[in-house]
Amino acid sequence: MTTGLRYVYAVCRPLGAPLQAQLTGIGGAPPALLRHHGLIAVVSTVPEADFAEDALKAHLEDLDWLAATARAHQGVIDALTTVTTPLPLRLATVFRDDSGVRSMIEAREADFLRALDRLEGRVEWGVKVFTEPPPAETESSAPADRPMSGRDYLRRRRADTRAHEEDLQAAEAFAQSLHERLCARAEDCRLHPPQNAALSGARGRNVLNAAYLVPRDRSEGFVELVDRTKDETAGLRVELTGPWAAYSFSGFSEEGTREDGGGVTAGEAR
């Protein structure tokens, strides 16, 4: 018989409106609301064969499985964000049973309540800046009967290197200036490490990868500011994402969670 674990997506206060009836989470299971004191854990049942510690470690190396799990997790968080302020937990936070979930809430109740008070009515926006890859180089314009000398070739390479370095310095200066302007419009901000192009598939070099905590009622002005900066970005690409739940500011989506005595740990893939 297949046994199940309790997967926890987020912790929040009681919802002001019901979740969509057709919402599904990990493995197609509908999320449930587990109440404890004045808080709610949004949970679903997942197979132990996939989420027990050893199995989970193996799954975290499977990019297809990881992507599908992350999409299902994010779908539940997105749905919660439309009706409440959720505190997203780390991807693949699991417990043996409801008792383990309640024990976790009991132990962290004061932290959860403080975070919910601080984040109420606020959302996270993500802003990334990329250099645009140069067009493919054309063949040398030198006549075919006058091949480029070794000295000319080295001179051209040095000029190309200097131009590339100057472009990168200009891109980094723009990214720093944009980040400062956006931080002035946000209540809090976080700089994340640049994205690895080999993993993300994004074109160009990532020179800004940041998150901004913004009140919902000031989000329109924040988005307009980002849009205006796109006129300043010849050779650069500015990407805006959101609004999201406040992953970067909750303090809980980046923590591991272990059930006392249960041996079940959280995995991560953000």
Automatic annotation (TrEMBL):
**GO biological process terms, semicolon-separated:** gas vesicle organization
Disordered, as annotated region: 132-151, 251-270
Cite the entry's keywords alphabetically: Gas vesicle
Can you tell which superkingdom this protein's organism belongs to?
A: Bacteria
One GO cellular component assignment for this chain's record is: gas vesicle
Q: Respond yes or no to whether keyword Heme is given for this record.
A: no
Please name the InterPro entries in this protein's record.
GvpL/GvpF
Keyword GTP-binding in record: no
| Subcellular localization | Gas vesicle
> Family per UniProt?
Belongs to the gas vesicle GvpF/GvpL family.
> What is the name of the protein in this document?
GvpL/GvpF family gas vesicle protein
Q: Which organism is it from?
A: Streptomyces misionensis
